[in-house]
Amino acid sequence: MRATTLLAMTAVATIAMPAAVRAQVTPRPDGAEARQGQAIVRVVALTDSILRVRIGRDGAMPEDASWAVDRATRARSVAVTPAADGFATKAVRVRFGADGGLRVEDLAGHVISADTGPVRFDGKAFTLAKAMPQGEHYFGMGDKTGGLDRRGKTFVDWNTDAFGFTGGEDPIYKSIPFFIGVGGEGGSYGLFLDNTWRTWFDFGHRDDRTLAFGGPDGPIDYYLIAGPTTADVVRRYTDLTGKAPLTPRWALGYQQSRYSYMSADELRAVAARLRQERVPTDVLWLDIDFQDRNRPFTVDKNAFPNLKGLIGDMKGQGFRVVTITDLHVAKAEGQGYAPYDSGTRTDEFVHRADGSTYVAPVWPGPSVFPDFTQAKTRVWWGDLFADQVRMGVAGAWNDMNEPAIFETPTKTMPDDVVHRIVSDDFGRRTATHAEIHNVYGMENTRATYDGLRRLAPDERAFVMTRASYAGGQRYSVTWTGDNLATWDHLKLSVQQIINLGLSGFSYGAADVGGFAGGPSADLLTRWFQIGAFYPVFRDHSAKGTPRAEPWVDGPEHLAIRRRFVEERYRLMPYLYALAEQNARTGDPILRPVFYDYPAAMRMSCDQSWTFTLGRSLLVAPSPSPEQPRDYDVCLPAGGWYDYWTGQRAGVPQQQAGPGQIQSATQATGVATVLGDRVTVTPRIDTLPVFVRAGTILPRQPLVQSTAEVPNGPLQLDVYPGEDCRGDLYADDGHSMAFTRGGFLRQAVTCRMTDNGMTIAFGARTGRFAPWWKQIRMVVHGWQGAGVVSAGRRAVAAQGDAAAGTLSFTLPDQRKAGDVTLARQ
Question: Which residues have a catalytic role annotated?
Answer without folding.
Answer: 399, 402, 482
